[in-house]
Amino acid sequence: MSRPAWVEIDLAALQANYAAAKKAHGGRVFAVLKANAYGHGALACAQALATASPPADAFAVAFVEEALPLRAAGITQPILVLEGAFAADDVQLAAQHQLWLVAHQAQQLQLIEQHAGAPLHIWLKVDSGMHRVGFAPHDIAAAHARLAALPQVEKVSFLTHLARADELDTPAPTEAQLHAFHTATANLAGWRSISNSAAILAWPQAHQDWGRAGIMLYGAAPCASSTALQPVMALKSRIFAQRWLEVGDSLGYGAAFTATQRTRVGLVAMGYADGYPRTTPNGTPVAIDGHLSRTIGRVSMDMMTVDLTDLPGVGLGAEVQLWGPQVDINTIAAANNTIAYELMCHIQRVPRVYR
Ligand SMILES: *Cc1c(COP(=O)(O)O)cnc(C)c1O
Q1: Is 261 buried (19+), middle (13-18) or exposed (0-12) by CB count in 10 A?
Q2: pLDDT tens, 180-230?
Q3: How many CB atoms lie within 10 A of CB 233?
Q4: CB within 8 A of 286, min separation 6: which ones?
Q5: What number does the ligand 1 atom closest to the CA of 213 have?
Q6: Ligand 1 atom 4: the closest Cα is on which residue?
Q7: Which atom of ligand 1 is found nearest the CA of 222?
Q8: Catalytic residues (predicted)?
Q9: Which of 100, 201, 205, 354 could form a disulfide with 225 if both were Cys (CB 3.0 to 4.6 A apart)?
Q10: Is 253 tagged catalytic?
């Protein structure tokens, strides 16, 4: 690569975070690899986790097409398809490739009933209060009975998803969801799974047979917790040009920054086309050759500008970390009114470099 813009992926950190998720949750834990492993590269992450110590118990993806490249590359762990089947083909592919399907609505039960073939493991999704997808608690027993009657269904398990597990000072909605889930599934045999990362870290009551770790694997804490996580992704570039602004000079599109003192500006080869958000305000942290500084001026498509005034030793070619071990991605997300998940998923155009 000649343009100095890349994203480093630390696979040892990913493995350590998976071990931390297993330790925090107990039992078994899905490593969630949807959306290309939250922008980290699903195949490389799956291979690293499949050979980690401890190895991943299983993986989870959003839809069937996300699972197929993992199978094609020889990943043998179970893979849970979190949104289940969109069409009959998906059930066929799930049977053929031994994918575990979520079923969250009656149409999916029909697709499963219409399928004749290799044994299926279905995870019934309970809407315990998030009111996005899932069967109402009072419909779970009937849905379970329909599946249990089918020769093509070898096992039925249960999951639910928590809407507010990251809000530690608002426990009541999570407690209500746990209660609704347990009531709906009370007398039914099968594995249970409730916890996303926030619940793995902060809700021991939500720990069941299986946890589902997403964001914590990638080293971004979804809530306050005593579990140490290691950032996996480091978004990096270099200073490729520099200039001085005199007092009163303004910088870039919309003159979003105006110098109130002589200001040395560094141009960084990173823009919103790479996934660094355009909405980033002046003063957002960056690390330059290890020293903390700040963004100034508006982020453009292919480049952005940082303040070098207080870093006289830093010049052309200096390495800039936009987020990673030195700059918490949660800080960048908060400055942009979003969450680390979205920043990670939006990385594009820059090559991934695995460490
Ligand atoms: C994405 C997802 C997860 C993982 O959530 P994190 O907050 O990233 O840990 C777990 N369960 C379901 C159903 C999901 O869609």
Answers
A1: exposed
A2: 999 999 999 999 999 999 999 999 999 999 999 999 999 999 999 989 999
A3: 27
A4: 268, 292, 293, 294, 295, 306, 320, 321, 322, 327
A5: 9
A6: 214
A7: 7
A8: 34 (proton acceptor), 253 (proton acceptor)
A9: 201
A10: yes
The two tokens of residue 271 are 């823009």
Rounded to 5 degrees, what angle do the CA atoms 316, 320, 321 make?
175
pLDDT bracket for residue 118 (50, 70, 90): confident
Within 10 angstroms of residue 88's Cβ, the number of other Cβ atoms is: 13
Is 211 near ligand 1, meaning CB less than 6 Å away?
no
| 216 annotated ligand-binding residue | no
270: left (phi over 0), alpha (psi -120 to 50) or beta: beta
- Over residues 257-286, mean pLDDT: 98
Q: Is 272 a catalytic residue?
A: no
25 in ligand 1 pocket by Cβ < 6 Å? no
Residue 161 Cβ contacting ligand 1 at under 6 Å: yes
In the reported structure, the alpha carbon of residue 145 is separated from the centroid of ligand 1 by a whole-number distance in angstroms of 27
The predicted model scores a pTM of 0.97
Question: Residue 72 has which token pair?
Answer: 């094609």
Is 262 labelled a binding residue?
no
Given a contact cutoff of 8 angstroms between Cβ atoms, the answer to whether 59 and 30 are in contact is yes
What percent of the chain is modeled with pLDDT above 70? 100
